[in-house]
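Self-study notes.
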Amino acid sequence: MIIKPMIRNNICLNSHPKGCARMVQNQIAYVRQHMAGLSTTPGAPKLALIIGCSTGYGLASRIGAAFGYGAATVGISFEKAGSPTKPGTPGWYDNLAFDAEAAKAGLVSKTLDGDAFSNEMKDQAIAAIREVAAKAGIPAQVDLVIYSLASPVRTDPRDGVMYRSVIKPIGKAYSGKTMDMLTGKISIASAEPATEEEIAHTVKVMGGEDWELWIDALSAAGVLAPQVRTLAYTY
């Protein structure tokens, strides 16, 4: 299959497996160059959980924890494999590359694919934490939890209601200049303000409620270290 870039509104809509692998390898090389010797730093993570691990800040955090500090990692994301006629999502290939490079380096890792908002995935993650810890020969005590989910939709596991997030201004419309990176053409892009319902739905998806549910679930299962640190990225 020949893969050609499909770009719309400055966003590439497809991916190349080798390109994704090279990007992951480049990040690993950067971390190794700039974080050499930090694995013995007091407080360095030994077992990290990255919720939203496949691209962007989540992937970078996982690479930093693993290849910078030598941590065992469990990653969670929702990606799609390729088919004979269509490539998979970038995150799918990023995860494959990360796990392959981690194995080469003797680092223990496990990647789960599915809905991170669901109770079922939380249960799977807890089991994976124990599995990874056993393989690494360390206590099943996560000392770093990264929450890096950017999602357009979330189903609340408690009542089954689906909420959809939006990227819109609050209060008044916004207009600004944008440039088509392929042609260099500059134009004006505008966005209407979000409604009260859209604001409420976006908070349900991205406002930290699920982050809290994750911490509660991990704590109840006894897989959080006493000195655990957690960080959520905002988008």
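Second protein, same conventions, sequence then structure:
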Amino acid sequence: MEKFPAITRDWAFGGADGRGVRVCVVDSGVDGTHPLIGRLEKSAAVVPDDQGRWNVQEGVHEDLAGHGTACAGVIRSVAPGVSLSSVRVLTHGKNGTGQALLAGLSWAIDQGFDIVNLSLSTTVPAVADELRDLADRAYFRRTLLVASAHNMPVLSYPWTFSSVLSVACHNEDDPMTYYYNAGPPVDFFARGVRVKVPWAGGTERLNTGNSFAAPHIAGIAALVLSKHKWLTPFQLKSVLFMTANNVAAEGPDDTVVTPAAQGGAGEHEPHA
């Protein structure tokens, strides 16, 4: 049996651009006409029918809040070669329902995307079990779910599920600087303070929050997958651990990184 290679940053993602990796943003929609985004592979929106059931309609849909375009832009900036898709589950004001989130995430999993970015969460306990089942389904189908931690110290989902890779933000400027966190439930910390992001309508703005840390990790994960397509979500998370800035240089330690967004710094939390 071939010896497993040393896990270094160069081995993990050196020279990669994300080509061949399919990433879906579950959010407020993505503006595929924005010059910093480019063409979307697939676009869909979750809409209610006359009976109040939530259904997924495929086709071009506008970004109703700008938030999804921002997250997609971060992913594109880190991994410019990825294939981006979008499913809209949030409306104006970055609000949504737990049922819309379930429908949108289920659709994304069924499309077989390699990575799904969820810069949102829900505090509704009634949908927690079904959302956990979806997260587990994604895990066993080799789809990595990357979710932002809530900006406030409240219990929410899906970032607290063990099958999901959870992310909060630090205040450093390098998009490739990320830290493993030894104190759960947050797995990693990535850039998320005063991040220049594309916004709906072809504009740009500076944003802060865990929402913008998650797509940094999603983008880095895409770089890794573009070189090592055989990695499962568990293995991919392990590679990210081994290449984190506080692990790769000196070996793992028990340092708990202080989150920049502790106590709710950052913008209004996208909520389903």
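Instructor comment on the second fold: The first strand starts at residue 22 and ends at 27.
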